[in-house]
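Researcher: Here's the sequence for the chain we discussed earlier.
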Amino acid sequence: MDDFEIRGTSLVRYRGSDSWPELPEGITEIADGAFKDCRDICEMVIPEGVTRIGAEAFQWCANLESVKAPASLVEIGPDAFAGTPFYRYYDTNETDWKDDFLILGRVLFKARRNIREAAIPYGVMSIAPDAFAGRVLLSSVDIPGSVRDIGWRAFSDCSALTKIRIPSGVRRLGWHCFKGCGRLAEVSFDEGVEEMENGIFASCRSIRYVNLPASLKKLPGWVFFGSNNVERVRFAGPVAVMGERAFSGCENLRSVDFPAGLRKIGVDAFAGCICLENAVLPEGLTDIERRAFSGCRCIERAVIPETVTSLGESVFSGCRLLREIDVPGGIGELPDDTFFGCDALERATVAKGITRIGSRAFGGCKRLQSLELPDSAVEVDDRAFKGDAALRRLRLSPMTREIGAEAFSGCRSLSDIEFPAALERMGAGAFDGCEALSDEAGFVTLGGVCCGNITQDTDLRVPEGVRAIAPGAFREKQNLIFLTLPESVECVGDSAFAHCRALREIVLPTGVDSLGPEPFEGCDSLVSIVAPGMPPESFGTLSERVSAAVGYCRRGEGYPERTRAAYERFLSTNCADILEAAIDRNMPDAVRYFTARRLIGRADFERVLEKAQKSRAMEIVALLLDYRAGGFDGDVFDKFDIDI
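Model: Thanks. This is the structure I predict for it:
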C-alpha cells in the first residue's frame, strides 16, 4: 500500500516497480496521470467499483499490454493508454472484442479499423476518445440511448460518414469529436445534450443546416470553424454564450436566429462569414468580443442592444454593406477599428457615455457624411476618421482633450467642425488632406486657432488674425524648414513643433512668452529661434537657449527692453558657445552681431577662427579677418593659413 498515493477514493499516483501491481480495494477512480511513465508494468487488473480512468493515466507505460476492466467502468480519459503496446495487443487478441468493438467495462474503447457500419450495442455508456478516429470506411453509426458521453476526437476524420443522430441520453460531446468528417451532411439532435466542447463539427464541409437543442446552454468555440457550407443555424432554446470562432470561416452562412438569453459572443465568432446578411442582436446581450463580425461583408443591418457593456476591437470591421448603426453609451469606449472599412455606412449615432473614439473606429467609412459626438467623448484617437472622404460635418465635444495623429486625415469634404476649447494635445497630421477646411496657403484654422498646414511647403507663414497654435499643430512636418508666426498669436500649444526634423528657424511673436514642455523635441536641425517675448532662461535646454541667442543676434532689433537685457547678459557669458553654434550652422549675420560690437576677446578668437576655417565657412572667416584688422596684433594670425 505504500506504493499508492490515495486521496479519498481516488488513486492519485503509483510509485512502485511491480510488473503486475495489485490495486487496492475501495478506489473509484484512477486519476489523471496516475501511472504515467511506469515502464515496468506489463498487466493491469482494475478492481470492481472503479468508474473512471483519467486522462494520460497509463501514458508511456512502455510494457503494458493487457488491461482487465470491471463492469463498473464508465469513463476513460483522453490519451489514457497513449504510448503503450496496449493497442497492438488487442489488435491480435480477440478475447475482449465484441463484434467490431473493444469494450472495457461500459466504455466502447476502440472500433476495428475496417469498420463500415457501426451499431453500438445497448449498455455502452461512453465512447472513448479516438474510438472511431480515422475510420475512413465508416459510413453510418447508430448510437444507442444508453450512451451518456462521446469523448475527444471520437469520430474525427471519418471521411465517409454522412449522417449522425445524437440521442437524448447523450449529455456531453467531447473536443473535436466529429472534426474533419468532410461528407457529414446531416446532423440531428434529440433533446438532452447539455455540453459541447470546442471544435466538434470543425471542417465538416458538407453540413448545411443545423438545429441545436433547447438543452444546450452554451455554444462552444470553434464548433463549426471552417465548415464553409453551413447556411443556417437555429437554436431551439436560450443559449447564454457563443464561443470564440464558433462560425468563423462559414462562408455560406446566411442566417442565424440569435437566441434569447444570449449574453456573450466570443472572439471571431462570425469572422469571415461573408454571406451573413444581418446581425440583429437580442436585448440582454452584454459582451461582444473582438472581431466577432469582422469581414462579414454582406451584413446590411446590425443592432447593438443597449444592454451591451463590453465591445471588443474590430467587431464590425470590413462589413462593407453596413448602412447604419447606433452605438450604445454603456460600452464606455468605442474600441479601435470597430467600423473600419464599412464603406457603405451612411448614418451613425454615438450615445452619451462614450468617452473615447478609438483608432480607426470610423476609418474608411467613405459614405459617412455627418456625426455628432456626445459631450462625454473627450478623446479622439489616431486615424479615428481617416479616409472618410464624404464627411462634411463633425460635432466634437467641447471637452475634447486629445485628438490623435491623422485623426481626420483625408476627410477632404469636412467643412463644419469647431475647435474644442479644452484641447490639450493634437497628433501629427490630424487635419492632413482636409481640403475644405484649408485656406489658399493650406492652413487649417478653426475659430482663430491654427491646427496645421496640409501642404508640403518648406517655408510657412501663419496668416494674421490667428490667435493660437493648437497643440501638435505642426508636429512631424518633415519638409518644414522655416516657420513664422504672426504678431496676433498669443499662445502656443504643447508639442506644436515637435519632431520637425528639418526645421532650421522659427520666428515667434512678442506676445508669446512661454511654450509648453519640450516644444522643440526632435527638431534636430533647429539653429535659430527668434523669440522677442521669451528670455533665454525660459527655454528648457542649453541647445534651445543657444538657438534663441543666435536668433537674437540675427534679429534682435525688435526685442523689448526686458528680454534684450536678458540676452545681452547671456551673450556676454556664453560668447564662445554661441559663436561656435553660429559657425556650425553657417550663420554669418549672427557672427556679425559680435564683430560689430567688438565682443570677441583674444582668448576666444583663436579657437573661433580655427573652427570657421575648418568648417570652410568662408563668409564668417572674412568677418573675423576684418575683426582682426580692427583691433588685434598680427602675430596671433601668423599660424593660420587662410585658404579663401
